Amino acid sequence: MLAVGDVAGKGTPASLAMSACMVLLSILADIGGELDQVMGRLHCKLYENLTAEQFITLFLGELDPETGRLTYINAGHELPLIIRPDGIMEELESCSPPVGILPEFNCGVGVTILEPGDLLAIFSDGIPEATLDGEDFLGIEPVKSILTEMREQPLSVISNAIGDAVEEFLKGGHASDDVTLLLLRRK
Question: How far is CA 86 from CA 70, 82, 116, 148, 182, in A?
Answer without folding.
Answer: 20, 11, 12, 9, 21
